[in-house]
């Protein structure tokens, strides 16, 4: 998966995506809201959401002045919480499998 993200970055897809979003964001607040929105859009897997959001929005948020720590917190927390709550994510199979197993105790 990280190889695919790197190919998107090298081909210019991530930069084009960030430039398209950069037109919508003019303040630090907008950068935070767009980070939440993009992280929410990639709900199917938490690692994919972190890699896609981080790689494509990293240059944008640094230009707008959002701190790296706040950006990484938003991306990580949105990715993990949305993926674990969404029934269509990769975590759904793990949660269903774990809940169906019998207890060893």
Structural notes for this entry:
The protein has 105 residues and is mainly alpha-helical. 78% of the residues lie in helices and 0% in strands. The protein is built from 6 helices and no strands. It has helices at 2-11, 13-22, 28-41, 46-64, 68-85, 90-100. Helix 2 (13-22) packs across helix 4. The chain is globular and about 50 Å long. The mean pLDDT is 75.
Concise summary:
By secondary structure, the chain is mainly α. It has helices at 2-11, 13-22, 28-41, 46-64, 68-85, 90-100.
Which helices and strands occur, and which strands form pairs?
Layout: H1 2-11, H2 13-22, H3 28-41, H4 46-64, H5 68-85, H6 90-100
Helix pairs in contact: 2-4, 3-4, 3-5, 4-5
- State the order of secondary-structure elements, H for helix, E for strand: HHHHHH
| Helical content class | over 70%
Number of DSSP helical runs: 6
In percent, how much strand structure appears in the residues? under 5%
Descriptors:
single chain, 105 residues
């Amino acid at each position: 998966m990280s190889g695919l993200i790197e190919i998107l970055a090298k081909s210019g897809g991530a930069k084009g995506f960030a430039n398209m979003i950069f037109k919508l964001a003019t303040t630090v607040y907008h950068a935070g809201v767009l980070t939440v929105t993009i992280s929410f859009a990639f709900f199917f897997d938490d690692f994919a959401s972190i890699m896609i959001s981080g790689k494509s929005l990293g240059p944008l948020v640094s230009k707008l002045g959002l701190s790296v720590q706040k950006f990484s917190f938003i991306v990580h927390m949105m990715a993990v919480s949305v993926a674990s709550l969404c029934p269509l994510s990769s975590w759904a199979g793990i949660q269903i499998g774990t809940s169906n197993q019998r207890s060893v105790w």
